[in-house]
Amino acid sequence: MTAPQETAEPAGRTPDKTAASRVAVLLRARELGIVLALAALVVVTTAVNPRFLSAQSVRDLALGAAILVVLAVGQTVVVITRNIDLSVGSVLGLSAFATGSLLQAAPGTPVVLALLVGTLVGGLCGLVNGALVRFGNVPALVVTLGTLYVYRGVCFFWAGGQQINADELPPAFLGFGTATLLGVPWLLLIALAVVLVAGFALRSYRSGRELYAMGSNPRAAVLAGVPVGRRLLVAFTVSGALAGLAGVLFAARFGTVDAASGTGDELEVVAAVVVGGVAVFGGSGTVYGAAVGALLLTTIGSALPVLAIDQFWQGAIVGALILAAIGTDRAVAARVAARLRRREAHRG
Amino acid sequence: MAERVGNRAVIRRLAGWDRAIIALLVAFLVVAALTVDNFATGRNLSFLVLDLAPILLIALPMTLVVVTGEIDLSVASTLGLSSAVMGAMWQGGLPIETIIPLCLLLGLVLGAVNGLFVTVFGLPSLAVTIGTLALYRGLALVVLGDAAVAQFPGAYTSLVTGRTLGLPNLLLPLLVLSVVFAVVLHATPVGRSLFTMGAGVDAARFAGIRVARTKFWLYVLTGGVSALAGVLWTLRYASARADNGSGLELAVVAAVLLGGVSIFGGRGTLWGVVAGATLLAALQNALRLADVSTEALTVVTGLLLIVSVIAPNAAGAIRSALLRRRGGPTPPAAGEPSDPPPTTSPSVPSTSVRSS
Amino acid sequence: MIRHLRRTVAPVALGAVVVLGLAACGGTTRDSVEAEQPGPAGEPAATADPNAPTREGLKIAFLPKQLNNPYSDVETGGGEEAVTELKGEYKLVGPNDASASSQVSYINTLIQQQQDVITIAANDANAVCPSLQQARDAGIKVVSFDSDAAPECRDVFINQATTEGIGQGLVQMASTLAGGQGEIAILSATPNATNQNAWIEVVEQELQKPENSGLQLVATVYGNDDDQKSFQEAQGLLATHPNLKVIVAPTTVGIAAAARYISGSEYKGRVAVTGLGLPNQMREFVKDGTVAQFALWNPADIGYLAGYAGAALASGQITGAEGETFSAGKLGEYTIGAGGEVVLGPPTVFDASNIDQFDF
């Protein structure tokens, strides 16, 4: 729907440097807008209460954002292919409970293995989503709405009212939830790594570019020989796996896991992605934007109590932000299209 | 969404699904009446109708919206905001006779906001209504916070929950509304134009249909009906809360899709949707009576939803796979119907692929 | 299109205003309804026979706020024990989300299944009322526990403790932990939670007393009984009030979230957490020193008492009138107080010395 220049050219070669970079500037301006909004929010909140920027407070914020960022990256990968994954909240819950149960049964399990298991559980759920979408030839919205119910139900069955409390989890794992490396929390490092790897893969690998092509124009992608079905499976598996990873981070961060963990998270994730400038109808947007979007939403959540604004406003503010974000995207897309048309005219 | 290409032929087969779901509903009701204790009683019917009412009510206009290829996810939040405002005004001492029309008016306005974003600004309805889903629910919390306002007049609450001549009061209005929506969708030029829009916006424009205007009013209608559902909800539970009906949008969308309406638009029947919504509600009611756990309800709802979209496609896929193995001609190209068009809906231009 | 809209919308709006204007003159308002209402229901007409034998085979159903909630599970576990002792049929149903509307569907189902007793922890005192009234019309006895339904819709309410007892206990613990003076803050459930608000009111009254003049209540925040939200609110409290000495959380969700936050932050050892919590959830924080003491009644006893009260009602031993007494198995004899309330007893205080004796 927007930004065909993201897909039209093979990576690394731009025939018309100046026009292309001008377009790129416009797109970057979109992400810059969110960064500025985030900065403004932080400045205002800090002015009201300087402790908002204290080391502890920033660390809390980063830990809270890390989980949403990981989810948002996964969602971005799916959304740029013009699909959506509504089951991420349920996948997070299932993975968190699976990891919790594993650690409860075998407290000696190393943290790395726990991370792998959670990611694997999530990846399997994602693979099922992808297979249903691909082989059932049905819209992702419906499939993942269905699996949202199914995965949550499975989780309820499994948990059967059981809650895994902090005292049943090994201290090493809980410590991982707050531990730091050179002062930076592990959770944040993992989230950063996810963002950088996904960002690099989407930008610089052929398969990554093909995801944009699929979202931009599915029919053209098929004609151009993109293995659409396989890419789709991969995109959903990645989204599921990252939701699974987020589930492990959730368990480590909060220490209390029950069958309802992550209920309703799908909405927040989609909101973060949309606010971060990823077009709902695919083909444009970056994981960096989505990550900043997630950071912005988390910061709003933490800033409201400090600003002494009624918590009840949070939902309304997020809703207004989404509308503002898609409105802005529309305007940017229109200007990009106009620029590109002019560029074509110059050449012709 | 994905796989738009090549879906046209598959969508053709969806038309049979609405008949299948009606048959399924009838079969289920018979089996449940025979095997589940206390299912086929007058009182249970009234409980069933009360549980069904909000979902079916909102599913009616939602069907029209989905048929045009759009969606409205903000309906449950509109219901909640209408309930919260109703509570706040009742708290403030306004007469209920003033509050109810005001709430309906509010619903129309909320729907108009959705319509404005979708038609005038041309934004994708999925994103817009996810935004207003958060916005309207947020405003409901701002209006009423976590409070619950109660003590609505008994005359009004018993009007909603009561029975006349053994039949629940809500049954007749629901039936009448269903018939009205069915007639509008299937037997009027307006209804036909909705199908044309869903089949392809460009085709509809060429056919002289005022796409934006029609869609705008559909959103207004959906908002109004959702607010009405909010009023009924508040009176049924005699409790106005900001979180009333949260998550209901998923149940409504599930009912519409289960009824055989294509999420891409252009396909579906209203009777299928009525049957779909009723099947969901009856299933939940019967499973609860049979002491089946809540988890099973969740899983069954999800599976039904997936099956409802996959079953018609799977049948088509198997058929074309068989054709291929037999060494016959390759399956028809995308956009060409592979079998005679079904009779349930008006002719659809077979050339168009809906632009997004 | 805009112009067209304006043309159509104007008459519609005008019409609406006219209708409203007409309706506003005279109509059903809150005040007129309240004036009509007969007030609290009178005493039940039936008379109690304290010597009636306890019926066996009673169908007693438990409907907690939600299933899959550890606290509810413990409560209903006690109920199951009581029903088994009474040789009745125990049933547990409930929604997965703590919403009033889903509870109503379950009440309807229980009416259809012709239970003898419904014991319920109401999510919304008024929303469940019409259905419970239908149940009572159908001859079903209704016992509310933990969180009351509107008094006119139930026979007996099992109250976990008196409001005063809990409020005073909270202040006492806070005062001990703060060493008699300093800033304290409350992390509550929802802003409109009936129980919590009543306790907070008592806490505020207690703080007025001269012996507590050293304590200052600097903030009351709400975690909505949501783990993550409570966690964030605890963060917010310390960000805003650096000199805070004690966080008092009169809700099991809030105290666990606050303790978890403190134990993993730089405030550990400087800021104390207390309130009402479940021993199993709090054990780790008591052992690592984050939490010195907290209190709670035994939730299993609430369910147990509710089961016995239901059986006594269904057997005709009590009707729910003030002054009637009934026997509740291992808990002994109980007397119904004003408004059909039965109070379980004083809460237990847990600390490092006794926490390992409890498993709930």
List SSEs of chain B in N-to-C order.
HHHHHEHEEHHHHEHHH
Unreliable residue stretches of chain C:
38-44
Which fold name fills CATH's third level, the topology of chain B? ABC transporter involved in vitamin B12 uptake, BtuC
Tell me, what's the shape of chain B?
globular
Q: How many separate helices of chain C?
A: 11
Computed CA radius of gyration of chain B, to the nearest angstrom:
21 Å
Structural class of chain C, please? alpha/beta
Number of domains of chain C: 2
Under the CATH scheme, which class of chain B?
A: Mainly Alpha
Strand arrangement within the widest β-sheet of chain C reads 2-1-3-4-5-13
Radius of gyration of chain C (CA) equals 24 Å
Portion in beta strands of chain B: under 5%
Mean pLDDT of chain B: 82
Helical amount of chain C: 40-55%
The total beta strand count of chain B reads 4
The biggest beta sheet of chain C is recorded as:
6 strands, parallel
**Briefly, what CATH class of the largest domain in chain C?**
Alpha Beta
Number of helices of chain B: 13
Short characterization:
Chain A is 75% helix and 1% strand. By secondary structure, chain A is an all-alpha fold.
Explained architecture:
- The complex is a heterotrimer of chains A (348), B (356) and C (360).
- Helix content of chain A is 75%, strand content 1%.
- Chain A has 348 residues and is an all-alpha fold.
- Chain A has one domain (16-347): ABC transporter involved in vitamin B12 uptake, BtuC (Orthogonal Bundle).
- Chain A has a two-stranded antiparallel ribbon with strand order 1-2.
- With 356 residues, chain B is mainly alpha-helical.
- Chain B has a two-stranded antiparallel sheet.
- Chain B starts with 6 loop residues before the first helix and ends in a 31-residue tail after the last helix.
- Chain C folds into 2 domains: 59-160 and 299-344, 3-Layer(aba) Sandwich (Rossmann fold), CATH 3.40.50; 163-296, Rossmann fold (3-Layer(aba) Sandwich).
- Helices cover 42% and strands 18% of the residues of chain C.
- Chain C has 11 helices and 14 strands.
- Chain C is globular and about 60 Å long.
- The model of chain C is unreliable at 38-44 (pLDDT under 50).
- The A-C interface holds A 49, 51-52, 54, 56-57, 60, 64, 156, 159-163, 165-167, 174, 177-178, 254-256, 258-260, 301-302, 305-306, 311 and C 67-70, 73, 96, 221-222, 227-229, 231-233, 235-236, 238-240, 242, 256, 260, 264-267, 280-281, 283-285, 287.
